[in-house]
Design brief:
The structure is a single chain. The protein is mainly beta. About 5% of the residues lie in helices and about 55% in strands. Strands 3-6-1-10-9 form a 5-stranded antiparallel β-sheet. A hairpin with a 5-residue loop joins β7 and β8.
Amino acid sequence: MSTTRINLVMEWALAPAAFRLEIDHARVLASGTNVGWGTHDKATHSFTFTSTDEMCRICFGLEAEGTEEAGIPAVVRVIDIETPFSFQISDLLKPEGGERVRPELGVTLYAEVDRFAML
């Protein structure tokens, strides 16, 4: 099966105290907290933040099943949080997309195909 490299960014206006990710049809190649103070347990995809009074940004490099042309079925679920939510990577990659703001959650999601990594 073909795969696509995806850069994913999750940015909260105020960092949540903790959350965990479940990802279907993709694997995390790399991740890190770009803004904010906290810890990341890579084995369980769990995050905890001590800086819950400020924004946080977490970046991921994913290898997702599928292609833009054939479809990318990857789904990300944010769980173990006060208001769990999920999203499809393909929704963020639509031509008019790249960004999705969820004001009710205080989170903005960004995704792009990492074309450079796929050369």
